[in-house]
Amino acid sequence: MWREENLLFYWRTSGPDGERWNKFYHFDDYDVFRFAGDADFYISDERIDCCLWNPAYKPAMELQLMGLILAFWLETKGIFSLHASAVTTEGGAAVFPAQSGSGKSTLAAIMVQAGARLLTDDVLPIEQEKRSLQFWGWPGLPQINLWPDPALRLLEDYTRFDALHSDTLKKRIPVEGVQGGTFCRERQPLTCIYFPNRVDAPMSNKQVEISPFSPAEAVIRLMDLSFVGPGITARMGWEPQKLDFLSRLAARIPVRKLNYPNGVEYLPRISEAIMEDLENLPRPDRYVPLI
User: Architecture of domain 78-279 in CATH?
Assistant: First the structure.
């Protein structure tokens, strides 16, 4: 069954018991993700099945299911998924694409605390409406995953919440655990995309700096932050349609660089700067078809 010609991609991860090799197999009617002997995911056109070999892996398996596995299944349907947090305001959805540990969840949490609604904190499926050409983001889970430092700043008692899994200090926070936190359950038009960049070096007066990306640079960065990474994307032959989709996205939706000082004491200033920038953007063309 596990023929060498069906192995399209493999990658290494590390854990408390050493290095592990995960593998991706492609067959005519289904695909398989093997997570180092802990779990196998079988993905077909209509369903996803999981064989959990190591019960201790269950919490991490849930993260994989709602992350890479779901994103891959959506990609087989032609739906692009971005590795991003997103919140909604009156105008639509503000998106924060970033790798894990880069601050996107903290940005989502401070925006929720400032009055926005959470749309997602990890996987953001994006579709383009055929008639209006508007881009829409779909909701994820009603939770935010936070490290201890921002959690201590934003929550009264973060210790009562469960860890994502046994190998991390990151906590799984229900959206209502954030002061004033609410969740958006409907798809939302994309308003702006902000690439977060925490700056440890001294910034002039510790200001938050928001500047535009060129469409070409935006496409490159968005491609890098596809939830299904470049290795699997290339081997599945998805690159051309992804580049076309992201080129249209970057041409229609503003893409910004968000430089901000590192430190929880600056969080209120960061949310104020983002809210001000959003207020100055034109509202997305939600309802009027483009003829």
Answer: 3-Layer(aba) Sandwich (3.40)
